[in-house]
Design a protein that fits this description.
This is Glucosamine-6-phosphate deaminase. It catalyses: alpha-D-glucosamine 6-phosphate + H2O = beta-D-fructose 6-phosphate + NH4(+). By secondary structure, the chain is of the alpha/beta class. The chain has one domain: Rossmann fold, CATH 3.40.50.1360. Helix content is 33%, strand content 16%. It contains 8 helices and 10 strands. The strands form 2 sheets. It has a 7-stranded parallel β-sheet, with helices on both faces. Strand 2, helix 2 and strand 3 form a beta-alpha-beta unit. Helix 1 crosses helix 2 and helix 2 runs parallel beside helix 3. The termini are close together.
């Protein structure tokens, strides 16, 4: 996979936003897969700045959701649909008609998961999927030992994840759902370009395992090694445990000018 080491989170966000902008210039109706959380915010902010300056037109772009809480109404302010509407859709000027996501309130959640997989395929597939990574190597809500061939499915949140997410629910863990729908690793791998962004020393071990370790279910993100076009963008802190950091810097610095990430 391609590894790009950047000075800080802002630089990473700008690099990925430009890759998205280049994609949208080639394919105005591209389907962008997006994730929630604090890590991708610099990407969305940089892309929104390009929209405001008219450096890119996102009016025909489409957005696909990576995961969603089960049982939380779509209009709830902490549903991932609502979060993405605030952080991605509205800043980019994309309406809900350009949004795709699983139905977390469906009576038959398993059927809703299968329906979302089919919808992604029917839409032509995700062109670029933005990912974050957990300190244990999880991507989406595919925790360690998830099947590397898994499809969109329901997963049970760990107690620690519910504790961590309670801050979004007035610090009341009882309000945090117990389950989520997540794209499976097999589903994620079907995107044409995977871009993983990681910042901070807390992600260094997971990044080292993802990039330089063996492909293993104990670290779900290692599945990116199997993808023909996967890019890992990390700041200096997240790159601190990479044995070949010097090579990655040299390799990217000497790429032909016409190649992006």
């Amino acid at each position: 996979m391609e590894v790009v080491i950047v000075p800080d989170a802002k630089a990473g966000g700008e690099l990925i936003a430009e890759a998205m902008a280049q994609l949208l210039r080639r394919k105005p109706d591209a389907l962008l897969g997006v994730a929630t959380g604090s890590t991708p915010l610099p990407v969305y902010e940089a892309l929104a700045a390009k929209v405001r300056s008219e450096a890119v037109d996102t009016s025909r772009a489409r957005i696909a959701q990576l995961d969603e809480y089960v049982g939380l109404p779509a209009e709830h302010p902490e549903s991932y649909r609502s979060v993405l509407r605030r952080e991605v859709l509205e800043p980019l000027g994309i309406g809900m008609d350009g949004f795709m996501g699983p139905d977390g309130t469906a009576e038959d959640v398993r059927a809703a998961c299968e329906a979302y997989d089919r919808a992604l395929s029917a839409a032509g597939g995700v062109d670029l999927q933005l990912l974050g990574i957990g300190t244990d190597g999880h991507i989406g809500f595919n925790e360690p030992c998830s099947s590397l061939a898994s499809r969109t499915r329901i997963k049970t949140l760990t107690e620690q994840t519910r504790i961590d997410n309670a801050r979004f629910f007035d610090d009341d863990i009882e309000q945090v759902p117990h389950h989520v729908i997540t794209q499976g690793i097999g589903t994620i791998l079907e995107a044409r370009h995977l871009v993983l962004l990681a910042t901070g020393a807390g992600k260094a071990d997971a990044i080292a395992a993802t990039v330089e370790g063996p492909v293993a279910a104990i670290c779900p993100a290692t599945a990116l090694q199997l993808h023909p076009h996967a890019t890992v963008v990390v700041d200096e802190a997240a790159a601190s445990e990479l044995e070949l950091a010097g090579y990655y810097r040299y390799s990217y610095a000497h790429k032909p000018d016409w190649q992006g990430i």
